[in-house]
Amino acid sequence: MKRILTLCSQPLFEARGSPLRVKAFLRALGHDGFSMDVVTLPIGAEVDLPDSVRLFRVWNLPGVREIRIGPSWPKFIFGRMIAVRGILLGLFRRYSSVHGIEDMGLAAWLVARVTGARFVFEKHSDPGSHRSESRMKNLLMTVYASLERFVCRRADVIIVTGPGLAKQVHRYRVRGEVHVISDVPSTDREGKSEEIPRWRELFGCHPNDLVVAYIGSFAEYQGVPLLCEAIRKVLRKEGVLRFVFVGGSREDRENTAKIGRECGCSERVVHLDRIQPDEVADFLIACDVLVSPRLQGGNTPLKVLDYLRSGRCILATDTAANRLVLDENVALLAPPDAGSLAEGIEQLAEDSEWRDRLGQNGRLRYEEKFGFDRFHDDLLKVFATQDRNRKVFGVENG
Predict the structure, then answer these.
(1) Is 183 within 8 Å of 17 (Cβ atoms)?
(2) Phi, psi of 281 (to 5 degrees)
(3) pLDDT (tens digit, 9 = 90+) per residue, 156-178?
(4) pLDDT of 299 over the 90 cut
(5) pLDDT one-digit tens code per residue, 328-383
(6) Following CA atoms 200, 204, 209, 211 in sequence, which dihedral angle do they give, to the nearest 10 degrees?
(7) Residue 247 falls in which region: left (phi positive, over 0), alpha (psi -120 to 50) or beta
């Protein structure tokens, strides 16, 4: 039986990109003859996993209840704790592969070299997409980008989530294999049409209302402020549009509520707390237009795969990240400014046939290129490979 050690500083299993991908990874290989140990944060929801998966959560820090996207002191400390636990496991149990995700790549490389295992690094995002007005954060991301380059050049295998990240990795002049393994939607369950009335009642909809929705992270690179400004422009006009947000913090919910109050129509802007991954499919098919206002990054927005699967119309900013999956056949792509996004919302609201056509084309695109079976087969190509003989402290390991 092949054994895999995964080091991951993501809050498994919160309903956001990387944690959901790791969950799919464990499901895919956990039922396929692999023994899998995962060292991760003490934060995140518990989920049912295959019997062959063991989850090791490090100790929590006083007062820490959540980990936000991007660098932070708690995440730095947790990363060191995960690394130590990983080294101890690696010394006492023989692994065929040590798998480091994102910022745990350096620690995984160290464990792999100490134990003679194959080192697999998985890259989910572009460090440049996390840049902000904070000089300290930008400095940290610059340092991280240098460490990532170091790790990529020493990895036996590099997994990336899309062609944009693959190009970035190849610019590092890596020696290892590079595999593009696209994300999968947050759930493999289809939306239930009988749930639509319940969701639309939750949105406060009237019979003829048209729902424009955003679901996901409120990190800066996602472009949510741009969408909010576009909504302000649309709400100043009469209409039946209703805008729904899902996710974010209390501060984010206060900011979106302010939009409706300023425009004198609070009931037309609804912000829901996070919903469970298994509810996402039902939520999406209850909407009419799904928005991806992404501004930066070279990785595929996970929400876009959920959008495509839903068969609902997509409005997206015309940026490199969205272009990895979308084109004019499956979405209305608007320049990344508030005026163009507002115009796109209004155009789609007025043309139901166009919305239907884009939604149907999007569903076909999903069926052709994305899905759990394809994800599973691509992972097998990486982790079912025979181990390479390596030297451990100068001694041949084979």
Answers:
(1) yes
(2) -60, -40
(3) 999 999 888 999 999 999 999 99
(4) no
(5) 999 999 999 999 999 999 999 999 999 999 999 999 999 888 888 889 999 999 99
(6) -60
(7) left
The per-residue pLDDT for range 46-95, each reduced to its tens digit, is: 889 999 999 999 999 999 988 887 778 999 999 999 999 999 999 999 99
Identify the pLDDT of residue 242: 96
pLDDT of residue 82: 97
The residue behind tokens 């990983």 is: 86
Contacts of 241 (CB under 8 A, 6+ apart): 209, 210, 212, 234, 235, 268, 345, 349
In the structure encoding, which two tokens stand for residue 142, read together?
A: 């610059």
Q: What does the block give as tokens for 388?
A: 């390479």
- Asked if the model's pLDDT at residue 118 lies above 60, the reply is yes
Mean pLDDT of the chain: 90
Q: Cα 36 to chain center, whole Å? A: 22
Beta bridge partners of 56: 39
What pairing do the DSSP bridges indicate for beta strands 34-40 and 53-57? parallel
